[in-house]
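Both lines are given unchanged directly below:

***
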Amino acid sequence: MVKRPFSFVLFYTAGFLQLMPSGITASTSGSEPEQILISHVLIKSPVAGAPRTSANLLLEDQVLKLVSSETIPVSPGSTKIDAGGSFLLGELVPGEKPTFVILDGNPQENFDVILDTASHLLLAVKRGEIALNVFGSKTVEENAPEAKTSNWLAYSPPPVSMSMTYSPESKWNQWRTPWTNGAFIAAVLLDRQNWFSQDGASRRQWGDLSEEFDGGEVRAFRFGSIGTINFEQPWVYTIFAATNSFDKGYGNNDDIDSLSFLDYRIDIPSFKRTIVSIGKQKEPISMERLMSALNLPGSERTALSDTFLTSRNFGIVTNGSIFKDRVAWGFGIFNDWYEENLDFEDASTQYTARFTWLPWQSEDESNLFHVGVAVRYDDAKELLSYGSEPEFNKGPKMIQTDPFPAEYSLTTNLEFSWRKGPWWIHSEFNFVDISSPEFGDPAFTGWFVQGSYVVTGEMRDYKMPGGYFQGIKVANPTTTGGLGALELTARFTSTDLRDGLIDGGEMDIATAGFNWFLRSDLTFSFYYRHVWSDNFGEVGESDGFMFRLIFLIE
């Protein structure tokens, strides 16, 4: 199609409004590119009744680089133009030199804006060059971040993450009434797994892994609703269920057609920024455990988390933050008598607490260091048992203790995390002290370290006050002609269940792989794992790989 200068059509697509992570910087090869930031532009959908969207545009060397509804950091010396909520008409294609105008009125509501363009024209850009600018401009001296809006206030995110505030936009899966707002969201996870190598020791330990565990599966279909009950300070509800999720903490029913409820809880605002959450939910311990499984860089959680930390529990959590959210805390009391069909006094009670701290964060928030410490006390009224598969959903439990009695267990979790732009390094350590004189008061340990790098430059947002990282927001999705976002990952995990009079084995796992986020609702992942299993008096080694496809409905 031939493009005529200043022949404009109203342009809007949700794909161009992907949220750009903070901290993406211009290339430093050669001279710095010329950057022009046009902020607070209103882009309105041609669909009647759809809300207006405020967006920011970044041009580098006359090429449109990003369109975002979040703050876009730019280098000192860049030009900034504040459009003040004016309306954009034109064609926006990331990677091309754009042609558009910004007008002082909404042409959908007032056609005179089109008929008398000269009277309403505020800014004109032709193939990336500014032809007219009534707003004026200023040179950016320093990149001071703007105030952020607060989204998910509860301590742990929903099982299927969604970029929503408590006032969602009008979409087919969202609703608003005077009494409640809400949204239906879902995710389908499709896996293909193969064990392709085993040594003799591994075969003697576990048999032929490929014969028993190779194949594809619907890893899970997760679905549910998030929304508000519209009191003066809205309460937030979360209810999620899953099928084919009978293992790894989503219930112990061996019927793969069963339905398991992952979360059902109410989040109630308390004083200042304190939230009280009641229901089935994640305990406040471990960043990896708190993150949504769909946002993990390693696809499956580490054996460390699956061995020592429960997925979800029934109880009450209160959380809050101080010092501008840089110090956050969460406390919880849990007793799962309801789902275990036990009397309350016969079921184990757990007390969990977590503290996180950002001791250092750069001014533009692209570079930060996180530390966290959490403890979990279990009164052990029920028998204790620990174990995990080798970070594949389909595989034997290569470390496993038999159930044993104890007086109590005390788990300590330490977290260390550093992120600089697209780089992220994260590590956790678990120490479990168990009072069980009959079994020699065993103490179990484990740790992991992982690193990831987003080749395409995106950055994982850090959630305050929750103290965890969120998923990657794709800057150039395939829906707009981009390549999506590509993340390379590596991880090493070590777990030891051998102490006192208990021998549950030891297991080390090395992982390498990638996540390709084609767009916000479609992800393809590949992972290779090498496993060392120390059991039955010998160390076995095995290798496997898995593919995963995640499709979100949001």
